[in-house]
Every structure is written in structure tokens, then in C-alpha cells.
Amino acid sequence: MTGWRSVTLAVAACTISLRSAFAGDAQVFSLGLEDVLEDVSQLNHTLPTSSYVSESYDLLSNMTTSCTKVQAVSARTPDALKLQHFREEDDWKNSIALLFLSLETRSKMPRMVAAWLRCYVMVNVVYFLTGGMWAYYVYVCWGDKFFAPGNMPALRDMGEQIKVSMLSMPLYSMLPAIAEHCVEQGWTRAYSRVADLGIGWYLAYFVLYMTCVEYFVYWMHRGLHDVKIGYKVLHYIHHKYNKEHTLSPFAGLAFHPLDGILQAIPYCWLLFFVPMHFLTFELLLFATGVWTTNIHDCIHAKVAPVMGAGYHALHHTVYNKNYGHYFTYMDKLHNTLFTPEEDEERRQQRQK
Q1: What is the SS3 assignment for 189?
Q2: With contact defined as beta carbons under 8 Å apart, do 278 and 190 qualify?
Q3: Collapsing DSSP states into helix, strand and coil, what is residue 153?
Q4: Is residue 1 a contact partner of residue 43, using CB atoms and an 8 Å limit?
Q5: 193 close to 275: Cβ distance less than 8 angstroms
Q6: Residues 33, 203: Cα–Cα separation, whole Å
């Protein structure tokens, strides 16, 4: 009877081992094996003459020692360390952006909720800080140099743009929070340390990633114009400001929330295909908030091939040109580029 009992316990231990191995969970293996070992130990003390039990006890003791080593090695695997780095980095970002919350409060929040709140706080900071400073310097300090009388946006227009932006920002903040969750789960090709790949590969993948972003943002933006229902239901809200004197830095985030998310999605879904440094990704995503502030001030800085405000102002007034993101290359490639110089030449011809 005791022999059968030890065989049963050994089979139980093997079952735990196999299930844990397939699940990749050394900790479950260790805990389950300790329970089995305790049962065998008790049986060994009550039946000291049973060779079956004694041998099973020795076998399981060796298995426990091996399991402890496996568990230690598992915690040091590259994937486990990478995911640990992501979580530590995200906790660090939370400690900065959510400083107004105690550590205890932050630790009790679900990670995705904390990420959303952090992103919501930061998108508000970026929007109001950059938009406010931009508007102050462009309109108050240098308005008479940049704009003819009556060509600056009214406070009413800027207030409308702020209202639309504030209604959309809670949903905007969900996208980076979802991306962060996917990264923490190990579902993407993002990496946590530049040293993981080296500076050369970091730069190479950065160029590849941004080239793909340019391409897909161009087509996403163009699709919101070419697909009529997309324009009427979503993109029209942003194109209410189609006169130069109604555009302002605060129009940068004044989109229907789904429209804004669709145009930012290429940043996120490319993480599943292109190795990308995750902190760089987040900085780039928030940098678009600064960029959209810049391209809605209607001041042509003549910095081609950068798709500056002069180009984007024409996108609002001409409607079917200049869909690009940071650069003019995609518009030039697809014959949708219309330069401020061409617009000026057209105006002069009309005056003749």
C-alpha cells in the first residue's frame, strides 16, 4: 500500500513538473512540489522501513533543489528582465506625473488605469503649456510682424478649439495606455534599453519606424478625406477651422476623439512589427502634441522638406493637398504636394 502511495505521489510530482514546464511557471512547480514533498516526508516518518517512500522522498528532495535553481534562472531570462525593466520604467514615469498621489494610492491602482491617468495629465500639460506659450509669443509679442490686421484668430475661435480638445483628451489618453499594457505583456517588439540592441541598431530601427509612421499617417489622413463618411462624421470637426484667421495653436488637438486616435494608431501598431525603444516611442507620441501646435499657427517658416505651418494652412484652405505628417516626401511621391510658393504665385496671377 505504501509503495502505491509513493508511486502516486511521484506521479503527482511529475504532473506538476510537466504542467509547470509547459506553462513556463517555475514558481508554480516549486510550490506544488513542496506540498507533495511535505506529504512524503510525513509518510516517511510514520513508515521508516518503507524503501519505496524513502526513495521517493530522496527523489523529490533532489527535484526541489533542481526546481529552486530553475526558478532562479527563470527570473534572469532576457524576456523576463525586459518586461521587468518596462514595469520599473512605467512606475518611474507614474511617480513623476502622478506625484500628487501617494505611493500607496498609486500602488493600489490597476496598472492600465495608472497609465491612462498619467497620459491624461501629461497630454493636458503638453497641450496647455505649449499652446499657451505659442499663442502668447505669436499673437501678443510678435503678432504685428506675422499677421495683417484682422488675420489673427479671435478668442472665441481659440475657446472653441480648447473645448473640443478637452472633450477628446480623455479618449486620446487611452491609446498610449493600451500600448503600454501590450508592451508590459511582452506582445510587441519594443525594447527597454538602448544597450539591448546598441546605438547603431537603435538609429536604424528609428529611421525605419519613422519612415513607416510617415507613410501610414499620410494614408490615414488622406483616407479621412477621400472616404466621404470619414470626413463628414469625423474629420469635418477639425476642418471647421478652414480659414487662416480661425486657425490657432489650440487647434492642434481639436479633433473628434476617434479621428485623433486613428491618426495616431500607426505609432502604436508598428510596435508589433518594428523593434522600437519604448521610451522613445512615448516621447514621439507626445511630441506630436507639440508638432500639431506648431503647424496650426499659419506662419510659413520655409523649412522644406519639413511639413511646416505654411503647408498645413494650405491643407485647411485647399482641402485635398498636403496630408503629410512631419515631411513633404509622401505628398511629393503621391502628387498631393502644394507649396506656399505655388500658392503665392497663383494669387499673384489672379491679381493681374
Answers
A1: coil
A2: yes
A3: coil
A4: no
A5: no
A6: 47
Q: Do the Cβ atoms of 265 and 182 come closer than 8 Å?
A: no
191 φ, ψ (degrees, to nearest 5): -130, 160
Dist CA 207 CA 212 (whole Å) = 9
Strands (E), the chain: none
Strand, coil or helix: 335: coil
Grid cell in block for residue 333: 511621391
Q: Give residue 227's region: left, alpha or beta (phi > 0; psi -120 to 50).
A: beta
Can you read off the three cell numbers belonging to residue 302? 520655409
**Cell numbers of 145, please?**
510682424
Neighbouring residues of 16: CB distance < 8 A, sequence distance ≥ 6: 28, 29, 32, 33, 36
Cell 508554480, located at residue: 28
> Using 50, 70 and 90 to split pLDDT, how confident is the model at 11?
very low
**Tens digits of per-residue pLDDT, 148-160?**
888 888 899 999 9
Q: The C-alpha cell of 48 is what?
A: 521508516
Give the mean pLDDT of the chain: 83
Rounded Cα distance between 199 and 92, Å, is 23
Which cell is 246 given?
480661425
**Does residue 221 contact residue 131 with C-beta atoms inside 8 Å?**
no
